Amino acid sequence: MTARVPEGFWWGVATSAYQIEGATTEDGRGESIWDRFSHTPGKVLGGDTGDVACDHYHRWREDVALMVELGVGAYRFSIAWPRVLPEGRGAVNRRGLDFYDRLVDALLEAGIRPLPTLYHWDLPQVLEDGGGWARRSTAHAFAEYTAIVADRLGDRVRDWFTINEPWVVTQLGYVLGIHAPGRVEPDVGPAVAHHLLLAHGLATEAIRAVVRDARVGIVLNLDPMQPASLHPADVAEARLQDVLMNRWYLDPIAGRGYPEEGVEFLTWDRAEVRPGDLETIATPIDRLGVNYYRRQVVASPSVHDADRPPPRIRPGPIFTEMDWEVYPPGLYDLLRRLDCDYHFPAYVVTENGAAFPDPSPEGGRVVDPDRVAFLRGHLLAAHRALSEGVPLEGYLVWSLLDNFEWGFGYSRRFGIIHVDFTDQTRTWKDSAVWYRRVIAEGAVS
Ligand code: IFM
């Protein structure tokens, strides 16, 4: 079977600043919460930090050349807030902005569409010291920072993403504490999520005030929730998890406010929601960024225990090194659901990819058939949704390079290009060679 995409479809790759840039103390960059967190003993596997990462801050020309060789038409990267505003707000660090300015120019010259994300988790530490995302003022600081970046890049950048994966920021950063800033404060969860969404709305307005023809979106990580059985308790649990992870973000962005079921479950009094906030959050977006990695099979603890485990959904599921189920049909289901239930104007798969225990490079090659199969399966699923009318504008592989995988440090490799972290050599994996062919043919076969 050959699945062909329409002309103009964005074939691309994605990265984020803290995961690849390194140079964390160079050219006036301020400290981020991930610098502080990764330097705190015991927080990141192996004591890894983003101090050097892929050294992209110095090797960005080489990395743009890799993208040219791959033939990608779009590159999603993130801008490090503490490079632009080392103190979170106020004085602008020109050298920080210059870096992204040069990168954007090089991308445009290479015919690659720049897709900046304004927040991919590297909050200036100074803002966290003032309360972080639990405070409303952080949302306003984000809008100020956004206006500065849009003012500098908006003459060349048309497509913007505001915030990456607010669920992860809230849940892993402030509720469970396994991501920066490492706070274990379940009670502040709803406030954090609300301020992130408010920040998205304010930033969307800020970009549009500066960039006349801007196209703006937010990036959500969405996990379809499948009940483990048809037992009503499993079905109810799957529905609740869908509310807490997916609808908590989708509904307010779509203008429906927070789902009541979730508000009740969390016993949230909505004190942080001020008049006008929900309207700001619902400022229409031009596209939704969809990060899809897995589905979740949800079993209710009231029905299942060690003696009565939930039934297996299908025999022999495959899991990635992150312990995430490989389930390509979930991407099709998700895109169809979004289009049916929410009707956002357009969608881009802003991240999709997998960590597998790759072998070391040999003879200038890395053999990674599992990743090829993963990408192929998901591209076919995305294509199916597209061919049934879902307005899908593009697909971006996570990630261009092996990089700093947050709490797992460098132990999980998502790249289609292998990075040797001792000497920074980049080596093409078979998945990159395969993706180059897909792009060149404009079709998955
Ligand atoms: O590496 C992350 C990325 O930063 C956000 N989305 C999921 C990826 C894999 O965990």
Quick tags:
globular, alpha/beta, 445 residues, TIM Barrel, binds 5-hydroxymethyl-3,4-dihydroxypiperidine, two-stranded antiparallel ribbon
Structure summarized in a few sentences:
With 445 residues, the chain is of the alpha/beta class.
What do these coordinates show?
It is a single chain. With 445 residues, the chain is an alpha/beta fold. It has one domain (10-444): TIM Barrel (Alpha-Beta Barrel), CATH 3.20.20. 40% of the residues lie in helices and 14% in strands. It contains 15 helices and 14 strands. The chain has helices at residues 17-20, 33-38, 56-70, 81-84, 94-109, 125-129, 136-153, 166-175, 189-210, 232-253, 260-266, 277-281, 329-341, 369-387, 430-441; strands at 3-4, 10-14, 74-78, 113-119, 159-164, 215-221, 225-227, 287-291, 296-298, 347-351, 392-398, 417-419, 426-428, 443-444. The strands form four sheets. It has an eight-stranded parallel β-barrel with strand order 2-3-4-5-6-8-10-11, surrounded by five helices. Strands 1-14 form a two-stranded antiparallel sheet. Strand 12 and strand 13 form a beta hairpin. Helix 3 (56-70) packs parallel to helix 5, helix 8 (166-175) packs antiparallel against helix 9 and helix 14 (369-387) packs parallel to helix 15. The longest helix has 22 residues, at 189-210. The protein is globular and about 55 Å long. The termini are close together. The structure holds 5-hydroxymethyl-3,4-dihydroxypiperidine (IFM).
